[in-house]
Each structure stands twice: as C-alpha cells, then as structure tokens.
C-alpha cells in the first residue's frame, strides 16, 4: 500500500530573544590603530618637529549605577615605547608629547582632560614626554557621572614628536599603550 500526498502547509516558527542582562562593564575602545606624524615648523633650527593626532578614545560604562562601588573614579593613561628606526636607530619616548582634548565629556562636568605633556626638547616641569603613564582623561566620580544619564565619553590628543636636527633619517615606529583604570579615592 502506498500513501498519496494530498498537500502540505508550512508553519514559520519565530522567537524574540532579549539580550542577557548582566552586570555591565567599564570598557575602552580606540577609533583607530595608528597615527601618522608629519613634519611641521618647530621655530628652532636645532629641533625638528612632527605633529599628528591620537585616534578618538572612548570609555563606555554599561553598569547600573547601583553596581558601581562608592568613591570610585576612572581614568585613561598613555605611555609610549621608544621609536625604532633604520639601522637600529632609536628615539626615546621622552621626545613624544601630547595635548589631550575632551571631545565629549557629557553634561555633568565630572569628566576632565589631562594636562599637556611636553617633550624633553621643551622646558618646564611637564617636559617629560610619554615615558610614564600620563593622563589622557578622567571621570572624577564613576557613579555620579553615570547618574547624569551618560554612558560614554570621548577624548583625543594632539601628538608632537620633537628631535634634534641631526636625527638619523628614515621611518620610525613606536607603540602608544592606552590603559583604562578604575580606582578608589583614598583619604
């Protein structure tokens, strides 16, 4: 005996799956993976200057305000490696400086850019370059800035490399490491 197919019908099966609601996170993203510096007038015959821009750096906080411990603040710092060039030539990271720029700090007034860091070819107490972790920007109170209704803040920086006039010519590269930290205020 054979069964004869009389007809068939299709049934679409649909489901809406909501995202998993978790504790949220504090995270850092950078809009690009490189920055190119180009020569510009330094105003000093003994110094060569190269300018560029740090790609936009974004801090995002998806945590619920109630999950952020009291007395916390976050901050982004940067530190450069030595520039390596042709034939083993190097330029130490104290020759690279920056001027941070807060692009979007929200409306609370609790997010602030760091101070300018000059190069070792400049003068003054801040003429140290990006040898150590230097502040790009910070939120002075993690919970309060989040309570303001914002969840993301951005900054960038003008970069400047200054070398002596007799620097070995050629292509050089360095790595600028950006790090996000959250810490507690200590009395």
Condensed summary:
The protein has 187 residues and is mainly beta.
Describe it.
- The model has no long low-confidence stretch (mean pLDDT about 90).
- Helices cover about 5% and strands about 40% of the residues.
- The chain is flat.
- With about 190 residues, the chain is mainly beta.
- The N and C termini lie far apart (about 90 Å).
- It is built from 1 helix and 11 strands.
- Strands 1, 2, 3, 7 and 10 form a 5-stranded antiparallel beta sheet that branches. Strands 8-9-4-11 form a 4-stranded antiparallel beta sheet. Strands 5-6 form a two-stranded antiparallel sheet.
- The chain has one helix at about 140-145, and strands at about 25-30, 40, 45-60, 70-80, 85, 90, 95-105, 110-115, 135-140, 150-165, 175-185.
Give the CA-based shape: flat
Could you name the ranges where pLDDT drops below 50 across 5 or more consecutive residues? none
Question: How much helicity do the residues have?
Answer: under 10%
Helical run tally: 1
| CA(first)-CA(last) distance | 90 Å
Mean pLDDT: 92
Structural class: mainly beta
Radius of gyration: 25 Å
Total E-strand runs: 11
Order of helices and strands: EEEEEEEEEHEE
Largest sheet, described in full? 5 strands, antiparallel
Roughly what fraction of the amino acids lie in strands? 35-45%
Note the main attributes of this structure.
187 residues; mainly beta; four-stranded antiparallel sheet; 1 helix; 11 strands; 41% strand
């Amino acid at each position: 005996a054979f069964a004869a197919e009389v007809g068939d019908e299709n049934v679409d099966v649909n489901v809406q799956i909501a995202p998993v609601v978790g504790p949220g996170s504090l995270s850092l993203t950078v809009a690009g993976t490189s920055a190119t510096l180009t020569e510009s007038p330094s105003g000093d015959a003994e110094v060569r200057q190269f300018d560029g821009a740090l790609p936009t750096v974004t801090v995002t906080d998806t945590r619920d305000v109630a999950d952020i411990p009291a007395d916390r603040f976050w901050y982004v710092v940067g530190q450069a490696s030595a520039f390596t060039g042709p034939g083993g030539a190097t330029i130490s990271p104290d020759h690279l400086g920056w001027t941070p720029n807060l692009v979007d700090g929200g409306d609370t007034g609790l997010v602030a850019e760091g101070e300018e860091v000059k190069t070792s070819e400049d003068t003054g107490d801040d003429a140290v370059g990006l040898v150590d972790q230097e502040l790009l920007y910070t939120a002075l109170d993690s919970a309060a800035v989040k309570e303001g209704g914002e969840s993301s803040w951005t900054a960038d920086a003008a970069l400047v490399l200054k070398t002596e006039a007799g620097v070995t010519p050629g292509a050089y590269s360095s790595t600028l490491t950006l790090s996000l930290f959250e810490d507690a205020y200590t009395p």
